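Run folding on both entries below.
>entry_1
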Amino acid sequence: MEEKKKRVLLEVAYDGTAYHGWQLQPESITVEKVLNDTLSALLKEDIKVIGASRTDAGVHAYGNIAVFDTAARIPGEKISYALNQKLPEDIRIQKSAEVAPDFHPRKCDSRKTYEYRILNTEFPLPTKRLYSHWTYVPMDAEKMQEAAQVLIGEHDFTSFCSINSQAESPVRTIYDLTVRREGENEIVIRVTGNGFLYNMVRIIAGTLMEAGRGRLSAADVKEILEAKDRSKAGPTAPACGLTLVKYEFL
């Protein structure tokens, strides 16, 4: 008789620098692969996690969500302690808990919040290089904030989506989008939405940086949104500046 399994939720924080993103890829080290391998060894069974957000190579997370099924007797809330003893230092479980057997993190309503950090100094700072995008070109955070307001709401974000996207629909809702200075030298773009298309946050960041340089106005960004044409928007900002900071289930 097959043992009854339970479903366990993990809140996973990681430094994405050394990984080829979250999702499994042939012959590449990904966060998902490390979790599968480590859990399988720990629990002595074949474990396959289901991730909520498939972050790209080099993107970081304070708390991505994953679930897996296990017949292990160890309580769900204790798995985090055992797993953290086995994981590499750049991946840490922040919380584990048993959830309903049919809970699926990509099939329920949620809000995701990302931050994109820009280091705006004459020269790079080595200690910031892995977690922010450096540019020496002066940036006007107020102009970026003005342009950002155009993107709030439900829209077709085709202009802000990689052409490699396989999403069924380009329509997404942004609940909040702010640009603020943090100290003298950092600019933080913070965006909350019900979901994001492939490279969407990085393209938004790249476009808002064009506004910060004075190359685009808020009116220009509105035209880019309405054009539904990826070639009209700014460049895709580098992955290192992006962090998934919060994942909320509604």
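>entry_2
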Amino acid sequence: MKKTRVARYVTRAELKKYRTDSFCFAPTVCKRKTDSTNVRLKALAERGAEEGTLFLARTQTKGKGRMGRKFFSPKGNGLYFSLLLRPNLSAEEGGLITTAAAVAVCRALLRFGAENPQIKWVNDIFVNGKKVCGILTESHAEKGKIAYAVLGVGINLLSPKKGFDESIKNVAGAAFVTPVSPSAVLAAFLEEFSQLYSHLSTRPHYAEYLSRMLCVGEKVTMITADGELPVTVTGITQDFSLITRLKGGEERIFSQGEISLRPTTQKE
């Protein structure tokens, strides 16, 4: 029986096969290599590019993560793209984009058989205890409103043949063990995200985001600009801020920061 070949990269022609009533109908830029899809798309946004414009690359030399980190983007194993949005949101509501994208990624991965994707607050997707996706939203606000936002998504579809970079090999993983079509995964994400995006201000993804959250009820280390703090995660607010309980029982809410999954010695 002849083996069906799965395309390793997204092309405009390939993406057309999976177009639905979503952002798939917007202009698409495909590159073999770029420094950062977010950087390139922000430049297009400043020049007036229309909402829904996609910028994809087979590999990134300077892929961007949160808190100034680099996102490892090896050729042939991942899906790296940025999506231009011009939402009717206040600057304070920008987090709704990232959280909706997280839910949309989980839904898209599930369509192709990924095992129980989970969300590590606020922007990482985990499968089988390993990070398989990072999301970075960068926005430009004017007079308290978001003029545009660039949503960047990087998904490790398969593990690199040479393995992940030494600095991340203990935490990074892949969503799948057998090849899937990057174009099909991208189209699925765009379909799921566009449905949420059209009603974003009503937070249609809140319940699913909460149900997929890692660490609820668990002790973790919270990393903020002020340092590290052992806390127990108890949930999220309607604005997707993290609700935690300190050692003494006091509740504390974080709108910014990062959860570290390193074991904590906190005792209650």
